Each structure stands twice: as C-alpha cells, then as structure tokens.
Amino acid sequence: MFDSILIANRGEIACRVIETARRMGLRTIAVYSEPDAAARHVAMADEAYLIGPASARESYLNVECIVAAITESGAASVHPGYGFLSENAGFAEAVAEAGAVFIGPPPAAIRAMGSKSAAKALMAEAGVPIVPGYHGEDQDPERLAKEAEAIGYPVLIKAVAGGGGRGMRAVASAEDFAGALDSARREAEGAFGDGRVLLERYVSGPRHIEVQVFADSHGNAVHLFERDCSIQRRHQKVIEEAPAPGMTAERRAAMGEAAVAAARAIGYEGAGTVEFLTDPSGEFWFMEMNTRLQVEHPVTEMITAEDLVEWQLRVAAGEDLPLGQGELEILGHAIEVRLYAEDPARGFMPATGTLAHLRFPEESAHVRVDTGVEEGDEVSVHYDPMIAKLIVWDETRDAALRRLRGALAETQVVGVTTNAAFLAAIAGHPAFAAGEVDTGFIDRHMAELSPEPGAVPDRVLAVAAIHVLLAQGEAAAKAAAGSADPHSPWHDTGGWRLNDEGRQVLGFEAGGETIAVTVHYGRDGGWRLDLPGGTVAARGERQADGDLFAQLDRTRIEATVVEYAGALTVMTEGQSHTLTLFDAIAAAEAMDAPAGSLAAPLPGKILQVLVAEGDAVKPGQALMVLEAMKMEHTIAAPAAGTVTTLRFGAGDQVQEGAELLVIENAG
Q: What is the SS3 assignment for 215?
C-alpha cells in the first residue's frame, strides 16, 4: 500500500476520500483554487496546495498545476474523485509520468468508454444490448436530422463525451431538432470541450438503473448490485436508491452479468458504473459506463457494508478484490438525496449565496451526511451547487423512507434557496412510496411536488412575532444594563399605555402580501396574538442554542428562527418559511422601480442575444441565452412588448441582478 494520497478534486468527494485515507493511515494532500482556500477539504487534509484561480479550467481542470502539486508534495497516489479530470485519460497518464499511482482504471479503458458512440459499438461486440440510434462520426446537421427521422421521434440528443445530463436534449419533433442540436452542442463544448453528439431512440416511461462494478489487476471482476437513479430533473439525478424497487433476482443477475461483461471487454480495473435504460417490460439496454466512482456510491456502501473508496485504494495498490461475487449480499435498503442550492419553482435554476445557517441531522447507523461545506461557506457560480448528500438506511424500503423524511425535516439551510422542500415532497409522495418511479416522475408530478406557495400558517406567524418580541426584550435589557439608570421606565417593553391596553402591530411580508399580527401585552409577561385565523395566548423562551420554544394556547412548538439579509426564516415541523418585517419606506421606494426590465437570475456569460432593439416580442419568446454554473438558461419575455434597450451583447459577463434588457408595455 502506498503511504500518501493527493485528492485532485474538491467538495464532499474530497472530504470522503480524506476520511477513508486517514483511517487507513495515509498522508492526505488536498489541492484548492483561490476561493476554496478555507474549504472543508483543505482544513481536513494534512497538506494543501494552491492550484489556480476560481475558474475550473485554470485550477481543478489544470493538469499542469495538479501535476506540479503531485511532484512538490511527493504524493504516491492520486484520487481524481468524480467530475473534473476523473475520466480524463491524459490526466491518468500525466499522473503516472509524475511517478504516482492513478486511483482509477487504465487510460485505455477510460478512452474506450469516453466516447459514448465508440462505447456502444464495443458493447454491441461484447453482446451487451444497446439502445437503437446513430453513433456515427458524420456530425453534419443535415445528416443528423436525417438520422433522427430514421430513428423516429421522439429522439434523444446526447453529447458523445457527456455526463451529468449536460449536452443532452429530448426532441419531440423535426421542427425542434435544429435548435435543440445547437443548444446541446454549445453546452457539450462548454462542459467537455467536445461538441460531438449521438442520437438515440427516446424510450417511453424508462427507468435509469445502474450497476456498480469492480475489477482488479488479477482478472477478478464483480458487481455490487444495482442502484435506481430514475428520479431526475434535466437528466440529472436527484434521488438514488438501492436495491431498485421491484427488481427481480433474475433480472438483477442478468444486468449484473452484462455489467461485468462490459468491464471485462475493456480490461477494466477499479470502480466503475454501467448505466442501463429499462422499459416497463423489464428489457434493458446499455447507456454508458462511468469510469470512476459515482456521486451515489454511498447507497451501495450502505447495503453492502463495504467502503468502496477503500476498495479503490487496495485495488490500485495491486491487491485482489476484497470479496468475490458469492460473498456479496444485499443488506436492507438505502436512499440518497442530493441537497442542491437551486430553485425548483424556477426551473431548478442554480442559486448562489452564503450558507448563513446550516444544520444537518445527527449521523448514526441509519443516517449519513456527505458534505464539503460548512456554515458560513459561499455557494458560488464557479462550481456545482450541491450542498450535501443525505443517505439513509434501514431494513426495508418503507422504513428507509421514514428515515429519509425525518432526516429532511431536521435539515436546515438559510442563505440560499434549496430543493429541500422539493425532496421532502418526493419522499412523501404516494407514488414514490409505492415504487412507481421512472425518469418522467418529476415532470409528471411537478404541480404536486412544487405547488404555488399558500398562505403562511398562523403558527409560523406566531413564532415570527414571538422571535421579534423576545429580540426587543433582549435589546432593551442590554440597553438597560449599559444605561446610567437601568431602572428607567423607558427601558420597559411591556407595551404599557395610559388608560389603554398595551399593544403593538407587527407587519410581515410573504408572497407579495403584508400580514398584520397585533400583539396584546399581558400582565403576566405573555401576549395575546391576533392572527389571520384567530387569537391565541402566547409565551416564548429562547434556548441556549438560539432555538426557541413557543407556547400557543395548549400547543408547544420548537422552532429555529434565523435573521439574515433583512429576512426572518422560520423553521419548524420540517417546514421553512421566509418572512420580512414590513418596511413602509422600502415599499415606497420599490414603487419607483422601472417596469418591463429583465434581470440576470445569477452571474454568468451571455451566449446569445436573440432579439434586437425595436423588436416586438411575444410572451415566452426567447430573448437571450445565459451560461451559468455549467448550464444554459434561456431568458424569456414575461409578456408582450417592444425591446427598447439591450444592455449586453454575446460574450459579456453579467452579475446577478444586472438589468439585461428593457421591454416597454410589458405588463
């Protein structure tokens, strides 16, 4: 076994590898970009080396800088994590030339699977079933359009060098093909430096099931069963579980054998994942092979009680696989959800900001949290917006689902918009509980999973009011303590009035409306709160950890309230609501804001400007294409009008909130 390891990655996978390597007694070495100088993986490692500025191309994708860190640190091995350079054969060769062991498959195996079209040809030769489609070298748009017609719509455009759903577009008709092809190519070029695509038949109602494989340098190869990754948005996985719901022993064996055959066909070594598409009848086809560890590997670890990173290190050091196929068994059920900084209500738009408050469930044999961030960290535009992975395990799927709902209820994030409520809605959906999953699940149930926000519950308004009242009391007590006359009646916050009942009106804004809560002060230190649904007697107390207990009539509520960026976020009973105290001056200023302007939803680069000044536009018409966080985002007209001003052109960088263009008569 080598004595040291450099992790050529960032985030939760870097932290995960460091944890295993440390347990095995290895010296750990991190690399980091300038904004990651204080990142969690850097703090965890024994040593760390700066490799460049924020841009991934100049840091985590910079082979020369990472090789320099390998040489300077004397690292004996390099773990690439996933993403970035993990499936780059040239990087694997550069690591070997630097005198270190690349913890991954041989470069030839990476190249064999690096091109989706070439990989499918190899799999066909090996007898692995593949989806009908076009995998040729001719990339002329007319040729691709003809091939799409021959396959029959709907078709799927996929980047040849792609992954993670980038460079992938589903096309329903010939009229939409050219635009989808251009968009897929641009995104693939930006993400992988390769704009080539392939075409496949779009399978209706498919499930995405993948098989974890492992092989060593001594000819041994096994599979560690399957994972169901069908719950996806934008072709990117949201929830993964193992074993797959409804999987029969016969089909598991067939898919496992096909996956191992795929690995053997390319002389594979190390951890890999063979991804299959299945239809409702149970027929399956090879999609692609990921020549690396997967984001969702923890669910396999939970049902096998094996550490796959340790397996990787041992295999890379020349050891035999720790177990044979007959020694592996499935233990219970595991589910993983990906907690992202994104807004499901806005088409899963990535979000940026500071993690002002971050709390995860306590880890145990049933709950695991993989994260690369800590409270106070920044979610930036430069890298993937995943905050953490929550993984739960129990003996049955139903029990694991209950664990998942509990873990999500205990997860708290303030400072950035997240998909936490969306994940909780999936976990609580009857169809998901019944195992009725396929890749169209989210689209089919979107209205239920991300409903229009309703009225703020009375209990949330009451907690917010109690928080404000307690804060007023704490501020008054502090002022009194520092005053020359601490007993002055002016420090009293009991709402005393001459010949009148003491009261105060608090205005909270949510969803564009202002809600009044009238506070009546009681002589015993409590309050009566007039809420939209009626009046309640209320009391409250702050806990040492900052949480508060609220007594509302006979109901006792535990809640967390966080003040950040002028807003109050109330988290209670597994739900989160953000309110702002009504500010009449700010409201008056907002009345003067220019109408008809469109702002950048997040920082990025303008790829295309699709209109000119003076153009008349229709509601929903595409106006600009913005590239941000490795994804393309189309800026559309909110209403009919005329473009009067264009603020930016193609190639320009824009900041979040920047006015992109102005449309007159947009209502």
A: strand
